[in-house]
Amino acid sequence: MSTIYVAALNFRDEYGALEPSMGAAPYGRPPVAPVLAIKPANCQIENGAPIPCPRDVMKLRAGGTLALVIGRKARRVRELDALEYLFGYTLAIDVSVPEWSYFRPAVKQRCRDGFCPVGPRIFPVSAFPDPRAITIRISVNGNLACVASTSTLIRSVPRLLADVTEFMTLNPGDMLLVGEPFNSPLVGPGDVVRVEIPGIGALENPVVAEVAP
């Protein structure tokens, strides 16, 4: 499977909500480079597959978002050329145990089994000539819970690709999630999460109670 990277703090309203605390220890200033998390292979599930909710957790955060699928090796790409390195776009749900610290790797909260549904299809870059105007809708049990737009990204799709590949290489098949929309819904066992982007389609996954090993 590919490696999935998640850009944190990339929607302006999410960044704004946390900005007052960014001057606190241990860093004392806002981040300069992109803040990234990783979704390893164990996180990845398909459209329709169940998202397991750990037995010791009441609710999960379901950050439905846009996923950029890398088409060729990308290292130190220019913002002007960034879209040439994409194979296309798909949908993803960045599932996590709610937490608000970006000062430590939240592996236990973000990297559990089934914590990143992706799919169901990949659409070519040509389908969205302007990636600054993509609308993301997240619904729970058929009720609209959150609407976001890539027009409010701090780092646009080309800028994000340029900034990330400045210090790391992205390989064909890797995915880069553009960020978690602010106020993404909380879900629990029995809920069904649906993420929609007009022109791409929908990704829908039920949440179930984790089965004891």
Summed up:
With 213 residues, this protein is mainly beta. It has three helices and 13 strands.
CATH architecture: Alpha-Beta Complex
Look at the helices and sheets and give the structural class.
Answer: mainly beta
User: Judging from the principal axes of the Cα atoms, what is the shape?
Assistant: globular
How many distinct folded domains?
1
Relevant terms:
about 35% strand; mainly beta; about 210 residues; Fumarylacetoacetate hydrolase, domain 2; eight-stranded mixed β-sheet
Explained architecture:
By secondary structure, this protein is mainly beta. The protein has a single domain (4-21, 32-209), classed as Fumarylacetoacetate hydrolase, domain 2. The chain is 9% helix and 37% strand. The chain contains 3 helices and 13 strands. Strands 1, 2, 3, 5, 6, 7, 10 and 11 form an 8-stranded mixed beta sheet that branches. The chain has a 5-stranded mixed beta sheet with strand order 4-13-12-8-9, with no helix packed on it. The radius of gyration is 16 Å and the shape is globular. The two termini are 24 Å apart. The mean pLDDT is 90.
